[in-house]
Structures are given as C-alpha cells and as structure tokens.
Amino acid sequence: MSYSTASDPAAHALAGAVPDWLIARLQMVDTQIRPVQVSDPRILEAMRWIPRERFVTADRVAVAYMDQNVPLLAGRVLSEPRVIARLIQALMPRGGERALVVGAGTGYAACLLHALNCDVVALEENRTLAAQGRSLLAELAPGVRFHEGALAAGVPEAAPFDFILIDGGVTEIPTAYASQLAENGRVGGILHRRGAVPTAFLAEKQALGLRPRAQFDCAAPLLPELAPTPGFRF
C-alpha cells in the first residue's frame, strides 16, 4: 500500500524528519484505535497511512486526528476514528469483496476499504461533498467508483454487495438495501432509537430480512438524508 504523502516511518525517524501528519496518524492508532480492541492489522496499517487531514475542510485540519466527529457541512461529519475503525472491523471485510459505502462524504471510509482490497462503490447525495470525495478518491483510491444519488435508494445497478457500510446514524435500515445484498451479506452503521444511546449495529441478510444486532455504544449524528420525515402529532 502506498500514498503520495507516505513513506517508511523508520527511515524518516533515522533521518530525524518524521512528518507531523505521520506522527498524528501513528498516535491516533496507538491511543485511540488499538485501545478499543481494533486488532485487524490491515485496518491499523491503513489508518497509519491514509491522510485523514485531507478529508476535512481547511479550517478543521487541526482536529482531524482528535477522538471526535469532525464537522463537514450540512449536518454531516467525518466519523470519529475509533467508531469507523470498529465498524469496519465488525463487518469483517475480505479482500475482493464488493462494498457499498452509504453517506460516503469526502470519502475517508471508502478509502479505508479500498486499502483493504475491497471493490468499493461510494454513494453520496450532497453535491458538494460528492465533488470533494470524487476528487480525493481519484487521487488516493482510484479504484473506488463514486456515485452521486439518493442515499435511501442505494446503488442497484452495482449490486449485489457483500456488505454495506452506512457512515452515519439512521433510525432504520432503508428497505432498498436488503435486495442489493448478496446472499449472507451484511450491513453496518449507527442505529438511533428514541430514548436510547446510539449504538453501532451489524445486520446479516437472512430469510426473515435484516435484523440488527448491537455492537457498541457510540456518538454519531443522523445522516440528514436518511432522517425520518417529521409528521403531525395530535
């Protein structure tokens, strides 16, 4: 795996010139990712090298590696590092599997999955974010196919997917996703239930449909495009 901003950290250390962003990535992995039982060496390696600071706006680069969601625009965020790492690990991606990233934003999660040798389709509804994500992934993960369209609709023309990663919060799994999964496919994301703490979930495709199973508590805002439409109350 190689990216234009990365090279051997040991060589940099010997030269006394370790790049600041590389230090930030190594510290993120050692202090945020490994302590929450993310043990897949492929995920750890990808997060050490992928330039997370490139996926945020210029005024947010200073907080790109902090253990928090980083605001982007229109109610959207770059997900907290430990949350996206644990979600990806829960999905247990295997090299060569076809993946759909819903709410791809500027493309960080899609870039991670590409580094794990998955065949990735990124779906984004917001035009501004889609333009940013398409440009970044063309440089950093050129194998990713970026699709602009409604998040609730998925990408049926690219189905079936071995798994779907929803990069944000939902109150329910959109009904279109089940039909776009391969046999025994799975969906992961953050589920919001009224009166309960948001919880990461994993749902596997079965004869009775998708039944989410809680994985861990976490904080992630609802994806505005998948938020329920307000209704009248009497």
Automatic annotation (TrEMBL):
Pfam families: PCMT. Belongs to the methyltransferase superfamily. L-isoaspartyl/D-aspartyl protein methyltransferase family. This is Protein-L-isoaspartate O-methyltransferase. It comes from the Bacteria. InterPro entries: PCMT, SAM-dependent_MTases_sf. It comes from Endosaccharibacter trunci. PANTHER family: PROTEIN-L-ISOASPARTATE O-METHYLTRANSFERASE. The lineage of its organism: Bacteria, Pseudomonadati, Pseudomonadota, Alphaproteobacteria, Acetobacterales. SUPFAM superfamilies: S-adenosyl-L-methionine-dependent methyltransferases.
